[in-house]
## 1
Amino acid sequence: MVQEFNKVGVVGLGTMGAGIVEVFARAGFHVTGVEIDTSALERGQNHVQTSLERAVSKGKLTAEEQGAIMGRIAFSSTREDLGDADFVVEAVPERMDIKRDVFTDLDSICPPGTILATNTSSLSVTEIAALTRRQEQVVGLHFFNPAPVMKLAEVVGTVNTAPGTLEVVTEVAKRIGKTPVTVTDRAGFVANALLVPYLNHAASVYERGIASREEIDTAITKAAEFPMGPLTLLDMVGLDVSLAVMEVLWEEFRQPRYVPSPLLRRMVSAGLLGRKSGRGFYDYSTGKNPAEE
Ligand code: 3HC
């Protein structure tokens, strides 16, 4: 079945969606990236283009390969263009009302055999699946930022996901060069349930004035050889996304270690979301990350 699994749809072309389009196209799939907001569609297209150009300039791709990859990608502002997709990955913002709109639409547009996956990091896959009439063919396929680089893909099954669907999606994850792990639909799945409380804790350490932001980041990069310190990583992942994960962990488990840091909450309220808004723990308005200076 996976061999015939040729046309993929990606709905939502923010940073994650654009990265997911690139991953599938590089692995040889024909991909249609759908974004109904036309300026976001243009940004998503540019994101893919720039990422491939960077790979060419580094000698990781030839210009021919780049052309072939772009030739496998179609961009569209209409979900109806996914009427012949075998597999669709949703990567729209983390709001249930938006997911509802997308999944009810996809359920009526896509043929009965199409598998629908959500890249959600903070909403229940079970709740999303229940929006459709094909719960056995709905899964979570959770990528990590930056999607073209990070190797993990969490394959999230619900009580209603068919074992065959999990097998196919696990196989697809391998074909796109990811290392799949199969997990149950619980808040934070596995990786975020471990990682995001650590990031949240770093925000608390900063809030308590124990060390400067640079010292906190340096402590971790040098102590544990992590590629990024936690405050830099929070800025990259997005403070809003991290807060959303903390909130579902708290909601589901009610354990003190999942209480969101007050500073994180205030920064999100103030619009300091990290790189995407130009400022988080660091200021990116100059185009440079001060943590790297
Ligand atoms: N898109 C595509 N490729 C990118 C990229 C991006 N945004 N950022 C970096 N890359 C590529 C570079 O092109 C380079 O590729 P190459 O090896 O083929 O030349 C490679 O990644 C390394 O990049 P750089 O040399 O520029 O920079 P670094 O060595 O500092 O690596 C990093 C950057 C890969 C982001 C690294 O710092 C890292 O791994 N950081 C940790 C990221 C992480 O933990 N992500 C998980 C976050 S949690 C999450 O996403 C879950 C969510 O639900 C909250």
Note: The longest strand covers residues 152-157.
## 2
Amino acid sequence: KGAISFTDVHFAYDPARPILKGISIDVPAGKTVAVVGPSGAGKSTLSRLLYRFYDVQGGSITVDGQDVRDVTQKSLRAVIGMVPQDTVLFNDTIAYNIRYGRIEASDSDVEAAAEAAQIADFIRSLPEGFRAMVGERGLKLSGGEKQRVAIARTILKAPPILILDEATSALDTKTEQEIQAALDIVSRNRTTLVIAHRLSTVIHADEIIVLKDGVIAERGTHGELIDRD
Ligand code: ADP
Ligand code: ADP
């Protein structure tokens, strides 16, 4: 079993309309598995179940061998980092927004210093215009800039498991490519579940799952799926 394992998962928001009808997906430790499929196929529902926004109605989900129903949402958040489609920022500085969620966690000065260095490294890697904005308020950022903040937050948290839920789908093509490059770096050697709407954005995934009408229609590498088309 992988670091993340969905086994025969069933779920419906409305009992009359099943969304997931027996889904089994394994994400081995350090690997990247992508779930693609048309809008409404149930892709985001998988990430919501993994994060315990909802609980499965049949089957099970395990993280490192432990059933997520036996784990609190708080402890799940400690091991799973999520970059969502639309990042909601606080009306505070970008620096604050990047640090959000880590303030309580870092109780020693040493840790705080290490964090500051990590942030500084990340900031230095950013385009100049964005770098200048770090002391400014987050609310006026564009979609791409908000996603950079979300990625910075995730890098800082360094979670062993990563969920990328259509993290670039709200962006224009050029920004999407930039953000995608950053995400490829963050997900390397990390257990990653990617939710995507297009096959072309998940070329590097170790396995791609195609979800359709609540079941797995196809699975394979990017090359294998392209060949079958
Ligand atoms: P995808 O991510 O593949 O676009 P979702 O997992 O978001 O699909 O949604 C799957 C289906 O479930 C859609 O038809 C959507 O309308 C429905 N759905 C999503 N969230 C809810 C909800 N909270 N209540 C009822 N139906 C929902
Ligand atoms: P922890 O404090 O356990 O590290 P948080 O509860 O702060 O985790 O949040 C986990 C992740 O979920 C954060 O990295 C953040 O990106 C995201 N998140 C939390 N709250 C929101 C929110 N209101 N809107 C968007 N993303 C959020």
Note: Strands lie at 4-11, 20-27, 32-36, 58-63, 66-67, 80-83, 161-165, 191-196, 207-212, 215-220.
